[in-house]
Design brief:
heterodimer; A: about 190 residues; alpha+beta; Alpha-Beta Plaits; three-stranded antiparallel beta sheet; 5 strands; rod-shaped; B: mainly alpha; 2 domains; about 0% strand
Chain lengths: ~190, ~375
């Protein structure tokens, strides 16, 4: 390292430092626009295709269990029973948003288009159980019992009507929990 | 201190019955308390200003939640630090771990003793002032090394070792860069150094403009002192991206608070020393502070000193948010290959200047030309 290089190094250090300080001084005096958003007061509008919390419109839902099957992290659990009119009746539909990774596969696959991403993203809770969203607000066993009763009544009516013609169909209500339901007993967060 | 007590006794005759040593002791404790309160306040407000400056420079906002414009943030931080649990790691050397923060804090706080805040505002005008500051701030090395060692943590130890290497290296350029001021004043006492920069020349009496060598000396001192106090372009001992938080990584609560306060104390000491040695200390441009009545003289000179020192602190913060951190080898190269030779050349230059021109600076020569 020659003396020339040595002095050039010093000059370079001084010049570049001065240059940097000039830039920071310009920002320090007047930064132009502040980038920071004051979050609780100023909320950023999420984009059109923002994948927020899931919402299931249970009036449209057909209990097909596709969402349950496709979910890579098994955060959706669903119970349904076959009703009197041969349609499935949802007994419970829970989404554990603490586990959800917002991949959007369930929304994509939903045939009835009942499952949607909302714009919501604010959720904090003390208890992990609060992170499970319940979309069917009645108690599952009550619904099951009611549906079973309806099925039994319908079956009895049908049996009565067709008593003369042919033998009654099996009156067993057979509450049929949906297949593919992730084993609820293994999930500690469920019903927390 | 004793002269102050003597004048106090003279002014208030009632006190003449009280033994001298009690008065002196009370005066000592009082001045220590005043300085401590100043150091604490500076640490608090300084941290707020530091974060606000950082926010401005980075086009952010900075603290703005606690109090108007976030001005009470430092109180909230202080309360948090005091209330936090004081954790000592299980495998740490408990005694040394507990001792280290006090070494660091004492090392930086003890330097306040000789800082000339005003015409008569100095805790103790030691005749070896500059030397005393250099010596006592070296205690910081011991504290930092102890903290790194006692934490029993590899990052803390690395940080401590780096700090030791860095502070010891940069002690030399710092001392050599302060030497020109000492040469010009012919005294190590900081009050004498400040007095030597007075005169009716106003700004041009300052050592900064005495001759070209002292001008460079100021910048060399400022750079080296930044490194000596581990300020950001040279904050290798606590390089967050490599060492988590360096030597203080295992500290929490009030013990961490001491490290934090020491850092800001160091910052002020560096700025105050630069002010005293190069920027005319408490001299007010175009005003003769010593000729004023004692109260006004002290008040105005205190204001002038603090204004200069705080301006330098602001510059340190500015540098802090401008430059990226150096690598260890770059840091060492800068100390030994650049700063040490340059400060020695500077010292030689100043000595020759004083010898050739009989102690006169350029402004004085120009002034004498015009009578």
């Amino acid at each position: 390292m020659g003396l020339k290089q040595y002095i050039a190094d010093i000059v370079e250090a001084v010049v570049t430092t001065a240059k940097g300080m000039k830039i920071t001084a310009r920002y320090g005096v007047d930064a132009g626009e502040e980038v920071t958003q004051q979050y609780p007061e100023v909320r950023r509008e999420p984009s059109e295709r923002f994948r927020g919390f899931l919402h299931n419109d249970i009036k449209v839902c057909t209990s097909c269990t596709m969402c349950v099957k496709v979910c890579p992290v098994d955060c959706i659990s669903l119970e349904a029973v076959r009703g009197a009119d041969k349609k499935m009746v949802l007994a419970s539909y829970d989404i554990n948003i603490g586990r959800c990774m917002y991949c959007g596969l369930c929304v994509e696959i939903c045939p009835a288009k009942s499952l949607k991403h909302t714009r919501g993203y604010e959720k904090a809770s003390v208890d992990r159980g609060e992170l499970i969203l319940h979309f069917v607000h009645e108690d599952a066993s009550e619904i099951k019992a009611r549906v079973a009763k309806q099925v039994a009544e319908a079956a009895a009516k049908a049996a009565e009507a067709a008593k003369a013609a042919e033998a009654a169909k099996a009156a067993a209500p057979a509450p049929n929990p949906a297949a593919g339901n992730p084993a609820p007993k293994e999930d500690p967060e469920k019903k927390g | 201190m004793e002269s102050f007590v003597h004048s106090l006794v003279k002014a208030v005759p009632v006190l003449s019955g009280v033994p001298m040593w009690t008065l002196t002791l009370t005066a000592m404790i009082l001045s220590a308390a005043v300085l401590l309160v100043f150091a604490l306040t500076f640490g608090g407000v300084g941290s707020y200003v530091l974060r606000k400056v950082a926010g401005d420079i980075q086009a952010r906002i900075g603290p703005n939640r606690v109090g108007p414009n976030g001005i009470l943030q430092f109180l909230a931080d202080g309360v948090k630090l005091v209330l936090k649990e004081d954790i000592i790691p299980a495998k740490a050397d408990r005694f040394l771990f507990a001792l280290a923060p006090y070494f660091v804090f004492v090392g930086s706080f003890a330097a306040f003793v000789v800082l000339p805040f005003g015409v008569g505002l100095i805790a103790s005008d030691l005749n070896i002032g500059v030397y005393y500051v250099m010596a006592v701030t070296s205690l910081v090395v011991v504290g930092v090394l102890l903290a790194g060692w006692a934490s029993n943590n590899k990052w803390a130890l690395l940080g401590g070792m780096r700090a030791a290497a860095q502070i010891v290296s940069y002690e030399i350029p710092v001392g050599m860069a302060l030497m020109p001021a000492v040469l010009i004043a012919g005294s190590l006492s900081l009050q004498d150094i400040v007095r030597s920069q007075g005169g009716l020349l106003g700004v041009f009496g300052w050592n900064l403009f005495h001759n070209p060598f002292t001008f460079f000396s100021f910048f060399l001192y400022f750079t080296a002192a930044q490194a000596e106090t581990n300020q950001t372009p040279f904050d290798l001992p606590e390089a967050e991206s490599e060492l988590v938080s360096g030597y203080n990584v295992e500290y929490s609560g009030i013990r961490f608070g001491f490290f934090f306060l020491a850092e800001f104390g160091d910052m002020f000491v560096v700025a105050a020393l630069a002010t005293a040695c190069f920027l005319g200390g408490w001299h007010i441009p175009f005003l003769h502070a010593e000729a004023l009545p004692a109260f006004w003289g002290n008040l105005l000179s205190l204001g002038a000193f603090l204004a200069k020192a705080f301006a330098l602190v602001l510059v340190m913060m500015w540098i802090r948010w401008t430059l990226p951190r150096l690598r260890v080898d770059q840091l060492m190269r800068m100390a030994w290959k650049y700063l040490v030779p340059l400060t020695f050349v500077n010292l030689l230059g100043v000595s020759l200047w004083l010898l050739i021109f009989k102690g006169k600076g350029i402004p004085q020569m120009i002034a004498s030309l015009f009578g």
